[in-house]
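Hi everyone,

Forwarding the result from last night's run.
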Amino acid sequence: MRLANGVPDAEWVYDNPVKGMGLIDFESGGDDFYRGYTYDTYDHLFRPVWTLTRLGPEASDPEACEEGERCFLVGQAWDGYYSRLKGMWYPTAEVIEHRYDAYGYSLGETDPATDWDYAYRQTIAVNAAGQVTRERFGNGVRARGSWASTATTSPPASCRAMRVAASRGLGMTCSARRAPPMVRSSSAMTRSVAW
């Protein structure tokens, strides 16, 4: 609980045995804000499925939505095989589909009713590590990016997979004749935007 001038200002409640231990149950900000979470218990991953936000006087009242208060429901659908975000529903009744290629990399987000006729974001090109280097947004904006990777230890030339893993921010050891120490790296993207 957060206090402002000794008065409860915000509260976050975790560990509801029904929703799952270690997960947020709800958050509130006095009587003007309430957000509750519902989780998918399929395969015990506890992914968020519904988020209900209520605003206005008496928002913490469970009956507030029935009385015409401002309520916003956001839903999320998950891929049952790979556990990737597959789609989202927004309070405006808009649905967004997240698309992936055969290797699991994001192709972009689109309106499922129009297929790719209206894409909110579309991946145009990626580098060898699978990082997005060119993308197009629904408003016509195109972005081009370049990734710079810095590693604390250089892997030997015989370990190509190690370099790919390092460029994705992962640490790996190499099974070559002589195993080098763990590689840790960080990536940063520089983006230029054109209209």
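The radius of gyration is 22 Å.

Cheers,
N.
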